[in-house]
Input
Amino acid sequence: MNLIYFCFLNWIKKLHNKSNLFLLFFTILILMAKILFIGGIACCAAAPVFSIIGRAEERNAEILKSVTRVRHLKDLAQLLDAERSPLVVTVSGNVVSETPIECQMTRLSGVIVVESVEKLILQKDDATERKMKCKDDDDSWTLSSKIISSIPKEVPWYLDDGTDRVCVVGARDATGFVLPVRNSTFKESGEKIVLKTFGDCKPKKTIGFKRIERVLPVGTSLNVVGEASKDDDGTVRIQRPRNGPFYVSSITIDEHTTKFLDSSRWYKKTSEFLTVFGASIIVLSATSYILEKVA
Output
């Protein structure tokens, strides 16, 4: 590398007049333009994709702005009686249930509980879900985990704001839904030798099992955006609409809208930058090509 740099400096010293320096400049420019030409095309091709995503994010924000806001749940039943078509609303309240689940690990009362068991394995292969380097007998091992069971439990539950309550259906499939409380315990397997499974020659060692409990506790404050309807018995419920937003989270509808607008602006600005940058590179490459032909 030093030899190439030395030869290049000697070549520069031999250029005694401005015309040779001008020729050197355009030679380097032409080489760079040829290399960047494909990049310019790629930028111009990617710009419409970012623009489309930005418009989609803006539409999501406009949809949320059009959602009917219900301040008090007691007003929702009357609102449904006045509306004949499906009504998408946003409501908020605290989680309540008449038959809550008593959790064994967290010692809480919950309405949605997911109990899972992870198997922790040491092996000399990094193609696993979760990786962490550790040492065993002066050899490098990979710690991986594999979920071997997952059992969800759910009971009928409602949102209550003190004025009335509404039943929430299908919350686990809603956008933004998470189980806020998590607890886990670890149990060693007692395995002390390296095993080789049938058809697998990679050394493995099961070090134990992790039991994990995730819970949506009673009393959690949630904001829900979904389709409101009334059953034959008069029970008001909120569920996923056929066409429309469905959110269950601690984030308000205004925060969701702001996130969509910020994301839309970022995608649009990125699209504009890629268009200008890509077009500039293409123009530069075309100019360099013309100068090369003229020379």
